[in-house]
Design a protein that fits this description.
The chain is mainly α and about 210 residues long. It folds into 2 domains: about 5-15 and about 135-210, Endonuclease Iii, domain 2; about 25-130, Hypothetical protein, domain 2 (Endonuclease III, domain 1, Orthogonal Bundle). The protein contains 12 helices and no strands. It is elongated and about 60 Å long. The two termini are about 20 Å apart.
């Protein structure tokens, strides 16, 4: 049986200041950055958002920006046609339905264009200090490799993580697992030899037997 408590204690030592690596100064900037981060690195997003926020410092300005200009500003993030459309529609939704205020609940966030469960969880946890576990590719991969969950999809992964981890640790645990996946438990070449979780890892133990 996986010792989730011990795993989280080790990750807390490895990553003593768990937080998003996206640069933002408000819930508005955060939701834009998270939408842009889909299939794109945080590092790349952080190179794009300064110019975007200079031209669209508020959600109202983003809603009014011509989509062609928005596409130009975010082109290097990839999938820029779809992302520009989602960003503009999201901003219009916020202005028209929420009075220009980024909603602060997961359910309301998910009503916005381009905002799925993962994005809503990130904005709720990181932007508003709520407790949520956002499951991206890193969290999905690492939590399954460690054996904290046994799931075939992100929805089941989130549900199982919420059962395995105390609620008050959800937000920090999301970052612990994500950062471990980004820098240690990589998709193609995990750094098993230098991994602090090796003794607890189902993936490592299974591969050791081969």
């Amino acid at each position: 049986m996986t010792d989730t408590k011990a795993i989280l204690e080790i990750l807390a030592r490895d990553f003593p200041d768990p937080k998003s690596e996206l640069c933002f100064h408000s819930p508005y900037e955060l939701i834009v950055a998270v939408i842009l981060s889909a299939q794109c690195t945080d590092k790349r997003v952080n190179t794009v958002t300064p110019a975007l926020f200079r031209e669209a410092p508020t959600v109202q300005a983003l809603a009014a920006m011509p989509v062609e200009r928005l596409e130009t500003l975010i082109r290097s993030c990839g999938f820029y046609h779809a992302k520009a459309a989602h960003l503009k529609e999201m901003a219009q939704d916020v202005v028209e339905r929420f009075g220009g205020r980024i909603p602060d609940t997961i359910d309301e966030l998910q009503t916005l264009s381009g905002v799925g469960r993962k994005t809503a969880n990130v904005v709720y946890a990181v932007g508003f200090g709520g407790q949520a576990i956002a499951v991206d590719t890193h969290v999905f991969r690492v939590s399954n490799r460690l054996g904290i969950v046994c799931a075939d999809n992100v929805s089941d992964t989130e549900k199982q993580l919420m059962q395995a981890i105390p609620r008050e640790q959800w937000a920090d645990s999301h970052h612990y697992i994500l950062l471990h996946g980004r820098y240690v438990c990589k998709a193609r070449k995990p750094l098993c030899d230098s991994c602090s979780l090796r003794d607890y890892c189902k993936y490592y133990k299974d591969n050791e037997k081969r």
